[in-house]
């Protein structure tokens, strides 16, 4: 079937998964679940266009993974996200799936696409083998279908069917409500949707996350400025000589944030906290670091180790290194032995040697969350 757009819905809040990491960001090997599911389908059919819906908070990071996917901001519900995606669909048919349904195989997709010209919506289903009761009555299970995705719909009819306040849980329900035709083809029990942790063993196609650690590097400099306290790693190390900066100028935390984001392939501190944004004026950088930690957890990482080198002629920091280390380990939620802080001078050379400011370099090591054992 030519002229077909793929829409992958990946903007959900993952609330039923009950973990700090969203299920769509669990790593399958080395890539997130949403990309794994998208690649699986895109390798089975030459789609004209591939659209992935992502929540606004995850959109900038998702965009780092592909320049050939069209990323669309999701809405509050599955249906809102789908409506946003459909604004970018111009092909006559659209295949819509959930990113958490990763094990759709070639035969199942072929059954769906082969049937598509004959109905406004083609839906894969599973028969029910157990006895089915509805309220107090046992009903004939031959009339019961368990509906799966992906579903292939007429784009024009689906757009029309979704012009309503009624919330549908899938496309076939919306199209049926408008009087469109729906065709059912056999699905696949392996193409189960990952909803809660108990589903993990039931989805056998998912590879465990890659265990190779990722290392990031960060560097930052700030010039001294009188009349404010100096904070390094969240610890006040001087009461009246601080740093010129939009935030509190905690150069240790800024370098560390860049190291953490570097390891995650997530860009830099300026992309997360622009220095033109009034919200970050004079902000305590520990708040920014906590926000980065929350982001990393949400997108499937664990922080393993950080190593920091502070280059300063002033103030002398030898006696403060441990205080900075313990403070950072608490903010990061890491064992104190996994945060290392070193202090050095630059032998009176350069801007650090001339006592114009402080430079910091940092490395951070991350792992993917071992979600098979959460
Ligand atoms: Mg900075």
Secondary structure: helix percent = 25-40%
The CATH superfamily label of the largest domain reads Spore Coat Polysaccharide Biosynthesis Protein SpsA, Chain A
User: Structural class of the secondary structure composition?
Assistant: alpha/beta
Q: Which percent range describes the beta-strand content?
A: 25-35%
The DSSP helix count reads: 11
Low-confidence stretches: none
Bound molecules: magnesium ion
Query: Which overall shape is indicated by the principal axes computed on the Cα atoms?
Result: elongated
Outline the structure in words.
This protein is α/β, with parallel strands linked by helices and 374 residues long. It folds into 2 domains: 4-202, Alpha-Beta Complex (Spore Coat Polysaccharide Biosynthesis Protein SpsA, Chain A); 214-373, 2-C-methyl-D-erythritol 2,4-cyclodiphosphate synthase (60s Ribosomal Protein L30, Chain: A, 2-Layer Sandwich), CATH 3.30.1330.50. The chain has 11 helices and 19 strands. The strands form 5 sheets. Strands 1, 4, 5, 6, 7, 10, 11 and 12 form an 8-stranded mixed beta sheet that branches. Strand 17, helix 10 and strand 18 (339-344) form a beta-alpha-beta unit. The model has no long low-confidence stretch (mean pLDDT 95). Bound molecules: magnesium ion. Residues 220, 222, 245, 251, 254 line the site of magnesium ion.
Attribute tags:
single chain, 374 residues, alpha/beta, Spore Coat Polysaccharide Biosynthesis Protein SpsA, Chain A, 60s Ribosomal Protein L30, Chain: A, 2 domains, 8-stranded mixed β-sheet, 5-stranded mixed β-sheet, 28% strand, binds magnesium ion
């Amino acid at each position: 079937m030519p002229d077909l757009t793929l829409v992958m819905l990946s903007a959900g809040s993952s609330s039923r998964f009950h973990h700090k990491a969203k299920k769509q960001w669990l790593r399958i090997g080395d890539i997130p679940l949403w990309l794994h599911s998208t690649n699986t389908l895109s390798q089975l059919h030459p789609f004209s266009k591939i659209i992935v819906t992502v929540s606004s908070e995850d959109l900038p990071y998702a965009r780092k993974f592909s320049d050939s996917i069209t990323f669309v901001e999701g809405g509050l519900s599955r249906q809102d996200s789908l409506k946003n995606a459909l604004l970018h669909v111009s092909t006559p048919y659209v295949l819509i799936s959930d990113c958490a349904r990763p094990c759709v195989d070639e035969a199942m997709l072929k059954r769906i696409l082969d049937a598509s010209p004959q109905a406004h919506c083609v839906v894969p289903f599973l028969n029910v083998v157990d006895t089915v009761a509805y309220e107090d009555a046992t009903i004939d299970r031959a009339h019961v279908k368990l509906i799966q995705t992906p579903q292939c719909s007429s784009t024009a009819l689906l757009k029309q069917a979704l012009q309503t306040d009624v919330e549908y849980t899938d496309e076939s329900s919306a199209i049926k409500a408008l009087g469109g035709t729906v065709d059912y083809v056999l699905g696949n029990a392996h193409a189960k949707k990952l909803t809660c942790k108990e589903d993990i063993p039931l989805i056998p196609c998912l590879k465990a996350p890659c265990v190779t650690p990722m290392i990031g590097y960060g560097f930052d400099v700030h010039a001294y400025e009188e009349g404010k306290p100096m904070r390094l790693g969240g610890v006040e190390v001087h009461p009246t000589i601080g740093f010129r900066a939009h935030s509190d100028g905690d150069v240790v935390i800024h370098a560390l944030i860049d190291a953490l984001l570097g390891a995650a392939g997530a860009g830099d501190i300026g992309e997360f906290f622009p220095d033109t944004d009034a919200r970050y004026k004079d902000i305590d950088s520990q708040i920014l670091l906590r926000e980065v930690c929350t982001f990393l957890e949400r997108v499937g990482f664990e922080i393993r180790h950080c190593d920091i080198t502070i280059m300063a002629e002033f103030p002398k920091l030898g006696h403060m290194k441990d205080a900075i280390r313990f403070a950072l380990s608490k903010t990061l939620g890491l064992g104190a032995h996994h945060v290392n802080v070193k202090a050095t001078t630059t032998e009176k050379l350069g801007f650090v040697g001339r006592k114009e400011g402080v430079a910091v370099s940092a490395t951070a090591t991350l792992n993917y969350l071992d979600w098979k054992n959460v």
